[in-house]
Each structure stands twice: as C-alpha cells, then as structure tokens.
Design goal:
Length: about 400
C-alpha cells in the first residue's frame, strides 16, 4: 500500500477530495493549447460541440488557429469550475501541471494527461490518490503518441506474464540516427530534426535518453506492476555516436537504435536506455524517421509489436481524445500498480567494441552501469563500445 506524500495530505485541496460537486457535470477543462492541446481542442470542438467548458493558456491574447475565442489565463479557476468533470492537462513539466492535476484529483475529477515526465516519476501514487478520491488518471498519450500501448497493458494484456517490454520510444533520436545512416553527421542530423520540429531547441531530454527513460519507466511499471522503475534505470544517450559507429554496424547487418528496454532476469528486472545495434530484420530496426516501435514479449502471448507515430500534435491528441471519451463513459481505468517484488538492475548485453585503428570485435555481456563507469574501457585505443541487442528467449 502506498502512502501519500505529506505535501498532499496537508493541501487545502484534499479537504474537498470527496466533494460531490462534480458527480453530474460532464464538462471538460483543457489546460494548455499548444502542440497537443490545440489538436485536442480542434477534435473535440468538431466531434463533441459543447463539451469543452474552458481552455486555459499562458497568454490568452496569442493568435491561435482554433475556433475558440474565450481563453483564460487562470487554470486553477477552470479546474475548480463545478461544471468541469474531466480535466485535460496539456501544459507539461513538473511544476504547475502537477499542482493542477493534484487539485483536480483532490476534487474527484477525471484527469487525462500527456505528461510523461510527471507520470514516470509520480504516476503510481497519483493513481493511488485518484483511487481514493473517486477520480481517474489516464495517460495513454504519455507513451508512444498514437500507439495504444498503455491501454493494451492495462486491459488486453492485464492477465499476461510479461517477460520483456520496450523498444524505440523516442522519435527525435530515431530521426537523427536515420539521418546519420543516410550520411549526415550527428550535428547536421540534429539541426535538421530541429528545423523540421522533431527536436526541441534544447534537445537534451531526447538525445541524452531522459525522454525514453521516462516512457520506459511508465511501460515497465505497468507491465511488471512495479511502481518505482524510474529511479533504477541505467541510461546512455546518442550524443557520442559517430558515423563510424553506424558504418561498423551496417557492415555486419546491424542498425543502430536508441533502445529503452526492461526485461525479467530471474527475480529481477534488467532495465535501461542505450544506443544498441539491432539486426536489420528485427522489428526495432524497422522504426523509420520519428516512428516508435514497442514490443511486448509475454509468456502466453509471445511477441507483440506496436508501431506508429510516437509524437506530434495530431497523433498525441488522438490518444488524449480516446482517454477523454473513456473518462466520459467511465470505462477502462488504468489499473493501480499492485507491486511485484522485483529488484531493478541495469540492462546487460554483449557489446561491439570499435578500436581507433578500425578493428571491430564482439565483447562479452556487460551492464550499462559498468559501461557508463568505464567509459570507452578507459583505453585510448578504444573508440566506442556499443551494446548489441538480442531478444529474451
Ligand atoms: N508535442 C508532442 O508531440 C508530445 C507528444 C507526447 C507527449 N507530449 C506531452 O504533452 C504535453 C504538452 O506538450 P506540447 O508539446 O503541447 O507543449 P506546448 O506546445 O509547449 O504547449 C504548452 C501549453 O501550455 C500552456 N501554458 C504554459 N504555461 C501555462 C500557464 N501558466 N497556464 C495555462 N497554460 C499554460 C501554453 O500556453 P501558451 O500557448 O499561451 O504559451 C501552451 O498552450 C507535455 O507534457 C509533453 O511532454 C507532447
């Protein structure tokens, strides 16, 4: 049983946690109207006229390409509106968005969010809090954009004993590695990704592997019913990858991908984010451009592969709207984690070692933590050490 943090218990919001004010309301409050929020607004204004009760943004005077002219700058007021039953958080980050979600849950309202940072770090206890107040918390859009993987894990695969989950969870880095395969240098590929809107002006969350780690934490938490995977993830990004690494793999029928994977290893879970070589015919290798690929390996169901648009306003809004409809119909709650007793440790895999003189040799399995600690083996003659992926048996 999880305990709620002190900050929550002392919040004034919690005193109205069981307020019945919202039980009959059907309205929706949209918090944020940027890339994702505007996609959500456009869809719902067309498909469910009258559903949106209010839209809160930072700058209500900004010109926007949606049929709404009464933007508010007071998101808390919108959350408190008794006519709002479903709160859709599309602001992002861990500060304001967190406060607003807490407030909505405390008031017993259904919450839909695309906020992977928040769900990865605080999702389990937010879900437990929601269960206490009669609210719900849905976050299909937080992983894999339009790919319906959160719902699949929570319902279709609820009885499955998952052995392994993960894949290519970050479209920006996949776009960059793809462009490098086509001959671009890392900095050129990153610049192109930024120009096309696939990468933020500050790309660190993507290229350092944080974004993929957050998504993996959410998936692993659901798949293994284990709340705190996020604190134990080994993580390497792609900033050190060179064209020579890509070519060394290509010469051996391998493609380089940023993989985020968690799998059972005895009574532990091995989990991590790392650039890794995958065979050209593996589903992970088929992710093109900004696509995501998620593979679930279950004891009963065998391998299942989900792929598609992992980000972007329209794709992400599609998943948000599906959650909104589920909330309105009170169906398919994301189940709370019931806590499997599994230790989480760093992912292990054999490695391809590329020497400065051009030689490339296969090395034994090593954990990401050990790899991170040793750098390129601490040796000047080693140019790179990159794991080679092989599926769990
Ligand atoms: N973009 C994607 O492809 C994608 C994919 C998956 C998940 N997500 C997640 O979706 C969430 C939203 O991302 P996004 O790309 O849509 O972000 P975004 O384009 O930057 O939009 C953020 C929105 O939040 C509003 N906002 C900021 N401060 C506010 C405040 N104090 N009060 C009210 N509104 C405020 C902004 O208002 P203004 O418009 O006035 O500035 C803007 O409309 C994030 O959690 C992100 O991780 C995004």
């Amino acid at each position: 049983m999880q305990t709620l943090p002190r900050v929550l218990c002392s919040s004034d919001a919690i005193s109205s946690a069981t307020s019945p004010a919202t039980t009959r309301a059907q309205g929706l409050g949209l918090l944020g109207c940027g890339t994702v929020g505007s996609g959500v607004a456009r869809r719902l204004l067309a498909s469910h006229p009258g559903l949106i009760r209010g839209i809160a943004v930072r700058d209500p005077h900004k010109s926007r390409d949606i049929a709404w002219d009464d933007f508010s700058s007071d998101a808390f007021d919108l959350v408190d509106d008794p006519a709002v039953r479903v709160v859709v958080e599309c602001i992002g980050g861990l500060g304001l968005a967190r406060e607003l979600i807490l407030r909505a849950i405390a008031r017993g309202k259904d919450v839909v969010t695309a906020n992977k940072d928040l769900i990865a770090t605080e999702g389990p206890w937010l879900a437990a809090f929601a269960a206490r107040t009669g609210a719900s918390l849905r976050y299909e859009a937080a992983v894999g954009g339009a790919i319906p993987i959160v719902r699949a894990l929570g319902s279709s695969l609820a009885g499955e004993h998952v052995l392994e989950i993960g894949g290519v969870l970050n479209g920006t880095t996949n776009f960059i590695l793809d462009a490098m395969e086509s001959g671009a240098r890392y900095d050129e590929a990153l610049e192109e990704a930024q120009r096309l809107g696939f990468a933020e002006s500050d790309p660190r969350s993507d290229v350092d592997g944080h974004d993929a780690a957050h998504k993996l934490a959410i998936l692993a938490g659901l798949a293994f019913r284990r709340p705190s995977v996020s604190r134990s993830l080994g993580r390497r990004g792609i900033a050190d990858i060179s064209s020579a690494d890509i070519e060394a793999g290509a010469a051996r029928g391998l493609r380089l991908k940023l993989l985020a994977v968690a799998r059972r290893a005895g009574d532990a879970i091995e989990a991590g984010v790392t650039p890794a070589y995958v065979p050209e015919d593996h589903p992970f290798a088929r992710a093109r451009g900004a696509e995501n690929v998620v593979r679930v390996l279950g004891r009963g169901c065998g391998p299942l592969v989900f792929s598609g648009a992992g980000a972007g306003g329209d794709a992400t809004a599609s998943a948000v709207v599906a959650d909104v409809l589920a909330a309105l119909e009170s169906r398919e709650r994301v189940p709370a984690h019931d806590g499997e007793d599994l230790v989480v440790r760093s992912l292990r895999a054999p490695v391809l070692v590329r020497f400065a003189d051009g030689r490339v040799v296969m090395g034994d399995a090593i954990s990401l933590d050990a790899l991170e600690a040793s750098g390129a083996g601490g040796r000047r003659d080693v140019a790179s050490i990159i794991p080679v992926w092989s599926d769990a048996a």
